[in-house]
Each structure stands twice: as structure tokens, then as C-alpha cells.
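User: Design a sequence. Structure:
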């Protein structure tokens, strides 16, 4: 089955790819299923209930998903294209320790199929701007990043998979910090994920960012496999047409070579296994 489990649309602050265009393009490329995973990043972005407070960056609102409109449009598209593609309701939650209560509240309000739990900021500091890394050594910011994820999953359970687990690599100006030095922390995270019946995603954007490794790295993927991890989703993290569905079939082959036998889709927060 050809599906994409990490897809952004105009409901994310960093995309203007119209949701219906995503659906049409996915159908045109032969996709059977798509899961929308637009951004929510409490701490640095506001909800739409106070639109007058929302700031804009490059013409895009620094705001979370407009929840009522989002679910309404998905419902409409699901019906309109029901004979052509399966559409799932997901979101990407950029959770930090101090924002957990807001996500718990949001999760309780809607019926989700799938939630990607990502670490996009720590202490409200972004990685892509280097605000988080500045003033810390490479060791310090790598350890602090994984510590935040470990702390969050100790307290927050409303998710399906961890998104782009080694995201910090993408924004590390010092190069890749050695896996061996982070192995204990990452092992601890993966053990918790597995024990809680959650999973991880493989994020094919590593190819378009020109990273040498997969996201997460092959070392992390092997570790997950060795620890008994089975739940894994595949997503492009697309924000525009040329990203949609990219490298997904190639990634299935990679996963097979790494010793995985299945990947997952989700319905109502439950994994469905498909042979690779
Ligand atoms: Zn993300
Ligand atoms: Zn994303």
C-alpha cells in the first residue's frame, strides 16, 4: 500500500499547500491513504481563539491548526473522495514539558486517528534558529534535547509515534554528535516507547535535507529493532507538492534491509500492520 503518514497543509504555519490540492495530488500519484499531520506548537504559537494576538512571519500566521475548520474540511474531503483515497485525521504535536496540559486538553476535544509527538522546541527555543543550541556545547544541547523527549513521554501518553527522533541532527552546525555518546539516553526513550505500546516514524525528509543518514539514523532504527520495536510509520513531512509521497517506497526497502517486517498505518489511535 502506498500511503503518507506525515503531511502538512495550509493549516500549518509553514505551508500554503491547500488541503484539497494535497488530496488530489495524492490520488494522482496513486496513493491509497493519507494522514494529515498539521502543526500544533504550544509555547511558541497561539490558537485561533484570539486571532488579534497572532503575529505573522513572512506572511504566515504564527498559529496552531485552526481546529474546527481543520476537522470540518477533512470530513468534507473524506466524503468527497471516499471512493479514491482513505483520509485520516492526525496532527503533529510539538510537545514540551511545560505545554503538556494544553495538549491533553486538545486531545480530549477531538477524535484523532494518529498523533506524531515531536520535539521542535525546548524551553520555547527553536532549533532551526539556533536559539536552543546557542550558549551550549554540542554535548549539552544533544543531551538536553533527548532529556526533554524522555521527560515528556514519562508524563504524556496521547500519541502514536515519536516524530523524526533525531531532529537535532538536522540543525547541528557542529556535525553529527556520535551515537555512542547518546546511546543510553536513546535506549531509555525507545524502551519507554515500546513499553507504552507506542512507535516511531521514519521521516523521509532526510533525503531532501541532504542528510547522510536516514531520520532517525540507521543506528537508532537498529537499536529500536533490537529492543523489540515493531510500530513504525513512514512519512514525507511534506509541506509542498514536490515533497508529497517522496522516498516512501524506497524507505520500505531500507526498512526491510534493516530487518523490519512491517510498517503501520493508524485508525482511532490503534496501529494497523502492513507487510513491507
Ligand atoms: Zn516536525
Ligand atoms: Zn512535520
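Assistant: Done.
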Amino acid at each position: 500500500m502506498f500511503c503518507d503518514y506525515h503531511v502538512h497543509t495550509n493549516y500549518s504555519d509553514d505551508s500554503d499547500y491547500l488541503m484539497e490540492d494535497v488530496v488530489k495530488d495524492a490520488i494522482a500519484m496513486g496513493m491509497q491513504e493519507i494522514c494529515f499531520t498539521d502543526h500544533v506548537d504550544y509555547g511558541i504559537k497561539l490558537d485561533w481563539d484570539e486571532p488579534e494576538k497572532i503575529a505573522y512571519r513572512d506572511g504566515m500566521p504564527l498559529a496552531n491548526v485552526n481546529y474546527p475548520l481543520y476537522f470540518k474540511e477533512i470530513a468534507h474531503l473524506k466524503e468527497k473522495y471516499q471512493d479514491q483515497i482513505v483520509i485520516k485525521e492526525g496532527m503533529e504535536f510539538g510537545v514540551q514539558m511545560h505545554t503538556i496540559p494544553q495538549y491533553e486538553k486538545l486531545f480530549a476535544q477531538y477524535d484523532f486517528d494518529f498523533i506524531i509527538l515531536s520535539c521542535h522546541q525546548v524551553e520555547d527555543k527553536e532549533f532551526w534558529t539556533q536559539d536552543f543550541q546557542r550558549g551550549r556545547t554540542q554535548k549539552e544541547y544533544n543531551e538536553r534535547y533527548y532529556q526533554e523527549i524522555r521527560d515528556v513521554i514519562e508524563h504524556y501518553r496521547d500519541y502514536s509515534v515519536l516524530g523524526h527522533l533525531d531532529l537535532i541532527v538536522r540543525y547541528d552546525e557542529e556535525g553529527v554528535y556520535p551515537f555512542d555518546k547518546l546511546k543510553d539516553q536513546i535506549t531509555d526513550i525507545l524502551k519507554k516507547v515500546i513499553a507504552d505500546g507506542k512507535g516511531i516514524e521514519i521521516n523521509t525528509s532526510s533525503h531532501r535535507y541532504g542528510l547522510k543518514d536516514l531520520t532517525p539514523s540507521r543506528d537508532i532504527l537498529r537499536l529500536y529493532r533490537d529492543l523489540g520495536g515493531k510500530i513504525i510509520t513512514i512519512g514525507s513531512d511534506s509541506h509542498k507538492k514536490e515533497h508529497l509521497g517522496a522516498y516512501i517506497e524506497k524507505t520500505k526497502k531500507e526498512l526491510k534491509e534493516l530487518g523490519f517486517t512491517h510498517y503501520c498505518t493508524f485508525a482511532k489511535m490503534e496501529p494497523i500492520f502492513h507487510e513491507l
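The longest helix spans residues 138-155. The domain at 3-275 is CATH 3.20.20.140 (TIM Barrel).
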